[in-house]
Each structure stands twice: as structure tokens, then as C-alpha cells.
Amino acid sequence: MVAAPTKELWEPLLAGSQEAGRRGGTENLPGIVGFGVAAEEARRWLEADGPRALAAVRAAFEARILERLPWARIQATQVARLPNTSSLTLPGVDAELLLALLDAEGVCISAGSACNARQRAPSPVLEAMGLSDLDARCTVRVSFGRHQTVADAQAGADRIAAAACELKYELTET
User: Fold this and answer.
1) Collapsing DSSP states into helix, strand and coil, what is residue 77?
2) Model confidence over 39-97: pLDDT tens digits?
3) Active site positions, annotated
4) Domain coordinates of the chain in residue numbers?
5) What is the spatial distance between Cα 19 and Cα 28, in angstroms, rounded to a whole number?
6) First to last CA, the chain
7) Count of CB atoms within 10 A of residue 166's CB?
8) What predicted TM-score, i.e. pTM, was given to this entire model?
9) In this structure, what is the dihedral angle of CA atoms 79, 80, 84, 86, given to the nearest 10 degrees?
10) Are 141 and 111 in contact (CB under 8 A)?
11) Which CATH superfamily is domain 50-167 in?
12) Which of 26, 37, 111, 172 is surrounded by the fewest CB atoms within 10 Å?
């Protein structure tokens, strides 16, 4: 027979009298209700045409990038991927320098893969996708939200392309 948990297993993080002294304070009822409303709104959007709309924004972005930077490569176009994300390899453009330049202009993108953000080593995810260390250092990730339009995506592509052209140089393997 398993012994019942002792009180020390249930020490409260905050002193209080809720749930027999196990939890301080009361539930954030307005926050809980607000979260429920937001979840319902997100469900309706996803069931309507949300993902298709995001894919159209992504497609417009990628078309503009390839128009402006014919040497760019878009990753994973032949497999199922998220409709709101584009992974670009820009040979000769250091991703970290591109991020810094674009950040100064108010454009927020990421380097590498999401699970390797803020690390200097090449992303294991990008390596698993077959990218060399050099290509991984030249890869950025662009994400789109439901309030962004095709025009927004094209304007972002123009800014990214201009910055990439400014930074392009010959990188070498290290």
C-alpha cells in the first residue's frame, strides 16, 4: 500500500488560505475568462481560413525574395511545413549581421532554427536538413502573424533583400 503524501510535499509557494493552505491568493478570473475568449477566437480563425491566408502571405514573401535575390534558397519547399514560417538561406550573408542590421530598422527575424536561437554553433536542425555549417550561418527564419498582409510581407522582403545585398560577401568555412 502506498502512503498518503505528507504535508511537506504540498508546501505552498505563497502563503495563503486557498485550497487548505496549499495556494496563496485567488484565481485570476478575468484572465481565465479572457484566455477562454481568445482561445475561442483563435479556434474560429483556424477553422475559417487562417492557415491558408498565412500560406498566401508566406508565398508572396518568398516570391518577392526570389525576385529580388535570385541566389537565395528557400528551405523545405517540397515538404509539409508551417504556413506562417519561411526559412531562407542567403549565401554570403552572415545571418547574425543581417539580424542586427534589420533590428536597427525595426524588422524582427531570427537566425537558424527556433530551437537553436541565441547560440553561435550551427543549428542541429539545419544540419539535419542537410545544410552545411556555412549555409546554416547564412540562414534566417521569418515568421508571419495573422494580422500581416501580402503587402506587409512584400515590404518585409524588400527590406530583407536590401539589407542582404548590403552585407553580401564571400564567407568561408571555419
Assistant:
1) coil
2) 999 888 888 888 888 899 999 999 999 999 999 999 988 888 888 899 999 999 999 99
3) 115
4) 14-47, 50-167
5) 15
6) 61
7) 11
8) 0.71
9) -10
10) yes
11) Aspartate Aminotransferase, domain 1 (3.90.1150.10)
12) 172
